[in-house]
Write a structure and sequence with these properties.
- The protein has 14 helices and 17 strands.
- With 538 residues, the chain is an alpha/beta fold.
- Helix 3 packs across helix 4.
- The structure holds flavin-adenine dinucleotide and succinic acid.
Length: 538
């Protein structure tokens, strides 16, 4: 079936939904989501969204905290822009009906998280993402200019390549005409022709064994954009959250928000040592790369499976009131966090790199925008500052909406787009092949491309990924369309890009820590070394 629209939005998280609501004022929108509207990384966000609200905080402090966390690779112009525009975008979220907690004096109650020098994180208890999604999905569902297609899986972006013209990365003439999508319920491939396309497909945590991300996070958007010959940047920087609940067998891992440490929680080894001060003067509230690496080191040195997050000294009622969801989750596995330390381990959490965009979310392909976790805007550099990602999503969705809305009257649909070329005839009923390859990929990434890397581990990862790539491409070429197989193929592409970029970076920086290049440009000497670094994938 063929559909025509002004805007195609791939993804229903904060980036996709806020963009859709804004461009719906300019034209018709189709918004697709591969499961249901709510199942997104956004839904699971706990700590909140960063924005300067009151003195003694100020914009410069937020800028400096972001730059320091980014370990010299942030684009300072973008950082300043995002931090400046944050308060305005918070107003938009509130205007759409999102609630943030307030104190009795009517001021917003602000969380503090690692790397932040002030309390500046607006939140709704410990379920900020779910509250934002509640507000936005209601608006999106009610908007008459927005058509929602759930269980619709984007397979590939449509470019000149599909009309028989070869395209090369770096060619400024490449244009996006929309996407081929798979209607899962009807097992039908659709062609969605669109004047503007936004990729807002979120993260890629599912390429690792242990992750806080829901199963939708398989890196589809990055893989699609890369196949369409867009540039990607900073993909070697995968952020591990230091504190996911240690509960073997649970997947995804349940997050214990960094805001718990901001509220006074202290990291300790199992025998009670407060180890973080050995690694950073900021202790348990150092930036994430440093805390995750410190925990990893302690676990390896001690041969233990978890460290503890101790909150037993915090006043119990305020702890429960502030983190009701986390408290209940711990209780459900027999841990009363007001009385017993919570066992925690690092887990793959956030993809700092992604599809390269400019300050308006424009990719290197015409009429293709990207926003949210799938994009690399220059804000995060080598390590994202906590709670800057919801902010990035809403700021760039806004900018992309304004930019594309202005452009819309000049654009036409491309005609004569061929139908999807589905030559495969075999039903990929050998699910065991797909499941096993997915597991292998996750093991490779966890064992060789995790928090600590070496040249030999990266080389081994590349060799193993290549075998998986060959096998999967062969299966894909013979098979009819299957979501699991497409996700595996996309995950392999993303894993390959991470390893390739990691091998090219001959230093340790931010989240990329390579024992063979220990000359880390760490947060402590970072103030001297700000620079905008670009390492695009050709
Ligand atoms: P998402 O919200 O992940 O949405 C992705 C969408 O893309 C989904 O609708 C999905 O179905 C769709 N999609 C993907 N592939 C396809 C495809 N092939 N076809 C069709 N649709 C597709 N950040 C903060 O700033 N503050 C926090 O407190 C915070 N807490 C977090 C807690 C957890 C547990 C997690 C996992 C993340 C947290 N983050 C937090 C990170 C933040 O939530 C995400 O970076 C952000 O929500 C990403 O939003 P997004 O709109 O880019 O993507
Ligand atoms: C958290 O609540 O710790 C997650 C915050 C984030 O990932 O930005």
């Amino acid at each position: 079936m063929e559909h025509k629209t002004d805007f195609l939005v791939v993804g229903s998280g904060l980036a996709g939904m806020s963009f859709a609501l804004k461009v719906a004022e300019f034209g018709k929108v189709i918004l697709i989501s591969k499961t249901n509207l709510e199942e997104t990384n956004t839904w699971y966000a706990q700590g909140g969204i960063a924005s300067v609200m009151y003195a003694p905080d100020n914009l410069e402090k937020h800028v400096q905290d972001t730059l320091i966390a980014g370990d010299g690779l942030c684009d300072e112009k973008i950082v300043r822009m995002v931090v400046n525009e944050a308060p305005e975008q918070i107003k938009s979220l509130i205007g759409w009906g999102a609630n943030f907690d307030k104190d009795t004096d009517g001021k917003f109650n602000l969380n503090r998280e690692g790397g932040h020098s002030e309390h500046r994180i607006l939140h709704y208890k410990d379920s900020t993402g779910a509250e934002i999604m509640r507000a936005l999905s209601g608006r999106v569902r009610a908007h008459q200019n927005i058509t929602i297609m759930e269980r619709s899986f984007a397979l590939d972006l449509i470019t000149q390549h599909h009309m028989g013209t070869p395209v090369f990365r770096g060619n400024p003439e490449i244009e996006c005409y929309g996407a081929y999508t798979f209607d899962i319920a009807n097992r039908r491939i659709d062609t969605i022709l669109s004047k503007i396309t936004l990729l807002a497909t979120g993260g890629s945590g599912y390429i690792y064994q242990t992750t806080t991300n829901p199963p939708i996070a398989t890196g589809d958007g990055i893989a699609m954009a890369y196949r369409a010959k867009a540039y990607v940047d900073h993909v070697e920087f995968f952020q591990f959250h230091p504190t996911s609940l240690y509960n073997p067998g649970e997947r995804p891992s349940f997050l214990i928000s960094e805001a718990v440490r901001g509220f006074g929680g202290i990291l300790k080894t199992q025998d009670g040592e407060e180890f973080m001060k050995k690694y950073d003067a900021r202790g348990s509230l150092a930036s994430r790369d440093i805390v995750a690496r410190a925990i990893d080191t302690e676990l390896k040195n001690r041969g233990e499976d978890f460290v503890n997050l101790d909150c037993t000294h915090i006043e119990p009622e305020s702890l429960k009131a502030h983190f009701p969801n986390i408290y209940q989750k711990c209780l459900s596995i027999g841990i009363d966090m007001t009385k017993t330390p919570v066992p925690v381990v690092p887990a793959a959490h956030y993809f700092c790199g992604g599809i390269r965009t400019d300050e308006n979310g424009k990719t290197t392909i015409r009429n293709l925008y990207a926003a949210g976790e799938v994009a690399c805007t220059g804000l995060h550099g080598a390590n994202r500052l906590a709670s800057n990602s919801l902010l990035e999503a809403v700021v760039f969705a806004h900018r992309a909406a304004i930019d594309s809305g202005r452009k819309l009257p000049l654009l036409k649909h491309q005609n004569n787009i061929p139908r999807w070329n589905d030559e495969g005839t075999r039903n990929p009923d050998e699910m065991v092949l797909i499941t096993q390859s997915t597991r292998e990929l996750q093991q490779i990434m966890t064992n060789y491309v995790g928090i600590v890397r070496t040249n030999a581990r990266l080389k081994r990862a590349l060799d193993r990924i290549y075998i998986l790539y060959r096998e999967t491409e062969e299966l894909y070429s013979q098979s009819t369309v299957s979501v699991k197989l497409c996700e595996l193929r996309n995950a392999i592409k993303v894993a390959y890009l991470i390893v390739k970029h990691a091998r090219q970076r001959k230093e340790s920086r931010g989240l990329h820590y390579n024992l063979d290049h220990p000359n880390s440009c760490t947060a402590s000497n970072i103030a001297k070394t700000f620079s905008s670094g670009v390492s695009s994938s050709k």
